[in-house]
Inverse folding.
């Protein structure tokens, strides 16, 4: 009886597994609602029944291993990445593998990865069973495998990066790089740099129910920069930090790394960043983060670029009053801001020159966020799923922190900058976000600025020269790194060339990658003679055409 029941499940069981998986992949890669997966699954099974898949009239069994098993597995990897992050960023994958993913807080994603693995095993078993029982599938299997390989965006991206090695012009961006100045600052202001995890300006749209209101309220006190888009290689935390502090996208070392199987010992050592410049001016620099500084080379970057004090979860946990009051990534926002306030008090009391304090919170982290207990006391209970609850918490905690600084008189001759590290990754309101014109948060507060708004087509690399000019540096034609100061009239890369072209050039660029990793990556012979720097008005088509 049990054997007969087991036999009766075929071919409906493999067809059902394949149909449900195909339907789920369809909903992940499109904006269709989740329940359409059942429509896709039923349509697939109806087609299978009509064509008698797995039980043809002239069935001939052969013990074969389909060619499509590997391409199917690779497509499964792509769907998993798209489901987890929304946009599959190969550069982010390469960088995190090289810089290290220890001490991460993605326990939920690990569970999802296990479920995906089990599902993929079911799909592979189903395809194998049908191919063995249906000669039509065996005949079409190689064509199916080729189609899967050709249609996998993950492999297409790898092909583009490989083609960049032999491109005719791999230095278009590098020729536009402008080294930051080393001029001396006078009456140097302090700087508080608050990165708000994934808290993009797009959340200010009215359909999200006012979750951004606290940042809007802060913006009324200073300058709000509108139009800060996201170019490729700036869409994760370290990439956003490096873009805004160094003026360059984070092109990972990847296969350029001298010792391929060892973690990075330096992060973008070939360029001077905000910390390098300010340390040379006598600033004391501190970085505080809720997550571990071991994750993704964060500690290596900050220590290697001028920061004296670098602390994260590992340093803060022994100092907690309640060791259980943490989240899977690290320290909750209310605790982090308390530590940050103590650090600013310490630096201010020492009265030993200007200081910088940078921190990054966790509340808005995808997919659901990590709101603090202080927010729950303010907003009510958190259901564990609502990212908008967490976004509101992140904005409220940031406003509360700035107001605490103000109440204690710690904002004299101090610039406060609030910015999202990158656009959010896949969250429950992903479909709504991706239908809007998405922008990063960039707000600057300080006595030296009259409140207002600056609307520019820009990216995170333009934050770097804007910060330098706000601090008092004199920039050559308002440029530093690949960016143009949003206080000046110089065109940004996006204003001059458009976002699609900048991203296309990034995919072809190799010279800038070598510049970033100078000393870590071997130098090519063709780079023995440095490129001539392009000193042009970026939007000037004549000058652009003359670029070598």
């Amino acid at each position: 009886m049990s054997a007969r029941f087991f036999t009766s499940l075929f071919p409906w069981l493999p067809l059902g597994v394949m149909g449900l998986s195909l339907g789920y992949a369809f909903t992940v890669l499109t904006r269709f609602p989740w329940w359409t997966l059942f429509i896709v699954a039923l349509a697939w099974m109806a087609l299978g029944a009509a064509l008698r898949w797995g039980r043809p009239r002239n069935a001939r069994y052969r013990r074969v291993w389909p060619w499509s098993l590997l391409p199917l597995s690779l497509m499964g990897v792509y769907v998993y990445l798209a489901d987890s992050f929304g946009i599959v960023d190969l550069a982010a994958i390469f960088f995190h593998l090289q810089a290290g993913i220890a001490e991460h807080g993605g326990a939920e994603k690990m569970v999802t990865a296990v479920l995906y693995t089990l599902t993929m095993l079911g799909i592979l078993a189903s395809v194998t069973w049908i191919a063995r029982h249906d000669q039509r599938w065996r005949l079409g299997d190689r064509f199916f495998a080729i189609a899967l390989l050709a249609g996998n965006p993950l492999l297409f991206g790898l092909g583009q990066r490989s083609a960049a090695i032999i491109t005719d012009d791999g230095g278009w961006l590098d020729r536009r790089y402008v080294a930051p100045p080393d001029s001396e600052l006078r009456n140097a202001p302090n700087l508080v740099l608050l990165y708000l995890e994934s808290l993009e300006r797009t959340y200010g749209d009215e359909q999200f129910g006012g979750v951004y209101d606290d940042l809007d309220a802060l913006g009324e006190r200073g300058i709000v920069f509108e139009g800060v888009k996201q170019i490729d290689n700036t869409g994760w935390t370290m990439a956003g930090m490096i873009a805004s502090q160094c003026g360059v996208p984070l092109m990972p070392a990847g296969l350029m790394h001298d010792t391929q199987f060892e973690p990075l010992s330096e992060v973008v050592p070939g360029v001077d960043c905000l910390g390098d410049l300010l340390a040379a001016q006598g600033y004391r620099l501190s970085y505080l983060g809720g997550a571990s500084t071991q994750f993704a080379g964060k500690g290596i970057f900050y220590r290697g670029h001028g920061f004296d004090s670098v602390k994260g979860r590992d340093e803060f946990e022994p100092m907690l009053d309640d060791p259980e009051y943490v989240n899977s990534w690290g320290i909750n926002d209310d605790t982090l801001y308390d530590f940050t306030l103590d650090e600013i008090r310490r630096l201010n009391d020492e009265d030993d020159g200007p200081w910088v304090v940078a921190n990054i919170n966790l509340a808005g982290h995808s997919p659901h966020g990590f709101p603090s207990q202080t927010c729950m006391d303010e907003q009510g209970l958190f259901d564990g799923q609502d990212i908008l609850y967490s976004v509101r918490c992140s904005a409220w905690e940031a406003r509360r922190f700035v107001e605490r600084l103000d109440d204690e008189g710690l904002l004299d001759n101090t610039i406060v900058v609030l910015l999202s590290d990158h656009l959010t990754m896949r969250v429950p309101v992903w479909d709504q976000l991706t239908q809007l014109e998405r922008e990063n948060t960039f707000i600057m507060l300080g006595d030296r600025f009259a409140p207002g708004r600056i609307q520019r087509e820009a990216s995170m690399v333009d934050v770097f020269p804007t910060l330098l000019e706000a601090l008092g540096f004199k920039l050559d034609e308002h440029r530093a790194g690949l960016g143009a100061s949003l206080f000046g009239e110089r065109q940004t890369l996006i204003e001059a060339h458009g976002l699609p072209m900048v991203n296309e050039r990034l995919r072809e660029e190799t010279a800038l990658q070598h510049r970033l990793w100078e000393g870590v990556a071997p130098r090519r012979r063709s780079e023995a003679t440095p490129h001539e720097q392009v000193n042009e008005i970026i939007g000037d088509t004549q000058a652009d055409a003359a670029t070598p």
